[in-house]
Amino acid sequence: MQQRYFGNTGLKVSVLGFGAGHVGAESLSEDQAGTLLNRAVDRGVTLVDTARGYGLSEERIGRHLSYRRHDFILSSKGGYGAEGADDWTPPAIRRGIEQALTRMRVDWIDIFHLHSCPLETLRRDDLLSALDEARQAGLIRVAAYSGENDALAWAVASGRFGSIETSVNLADQHSAHSVLPRARERGLGVIAKRPIANAVWQFEERPAGQYAETYWERLHQLDLNGVREQAGLDWAEFALRFTAYQPNVHSAIVGTANIANLERNVRIIQEGPLRLDVLTQIEAAWERTGKTWPGEV
Ligand SMILES: NC(=O)c1ccc[n+]([C@@H]2O[C@H](COP(=O)([O-])OP(=O)(O)OC[C@H]3O[C@@H](n4cnc5c(N)ncnc54)[C@H](OP(=O)(O)O)[C@@H]3O)[C@@H](O)[C@H]2O)c1
Predict the structure, then answer these.
(1) Buried b (16+ CB within 10 A) or exposed e, 233-253
(2) CA 35 – ligand 1 centroid, Å
């Protein structure tokens, strides 16, 4: 598994990361969660991304993965949900980080994101200072922002963050076009979330009211099926190779609760970037149809 320098942070991350959102689901047994987390790291998928809001995810990382802390890079998110603190206050940051360390049974978090807060919250100096203090105290290594659009652009320009996490996939290219070139110039690490567009191709019908609905609509409008068939790839491979080999992305954190899909993604990533003629056709479809679409949180 290729490991890449994560901007100027001094960290290295695997090109395929592990989105540990699904690992937080109660429908998954402890055994299944532990097997998934460890299989990922065994395969060199060494960036593990979680958040306060992902159900049992953080505590399962503590239970099943923390014993091998030096084998992986840990990314989490917060700003909310800290016991004894109001959301989006300095204590919510500081105590939230301390509580996450306890839940995950680790001494430090490598990358800690303010999780999808709007621009007016993101700009608050008291919150940014709380993040700086956590970094100076060694509780986190990199202060980061996870989000989209204006807030993401501000985070990159502000100089207050070492890395960002944002949606990058076939159906969501706003950040890739408008923000990531600047992030690279400034030496920020970049994590691509929702990298295979929530695998929306699996839905025959529009998934009304579900998280993936916007991507389902967009993928239909982009009409990339012919390009994909011509490339001779199934959807998972077409989507993952597109995102993981974007010039300004360091790691694509695919979410899965399925060990076979994890193994498949490890194999797909070895195939490298899509062919240039395929990328050119995807680019043309985006220019024709998608270029005004905003990033989706
Ligand atoms: N910061 C934020 O606000 C934010 C928001 C969204 C996501 N994220 C992060 O990004 C991670 C990934 O995002 P995501 O899970 O929403 O979207 P995603 O990775 O684009 O798609 C996940 C979906 O793809 C399926 N899948 C995975 N590998 C597959 C394969 N080889 N073939 C077919 N289907 C496959 C999974 O189902 P199976 O379980 O069946 O494999 C799951 O339904 C999350 O876990 C989280 O860490 C962050």
Answers:
(1) bebbbbbbbbbbbbebbbbbb
(2) 17
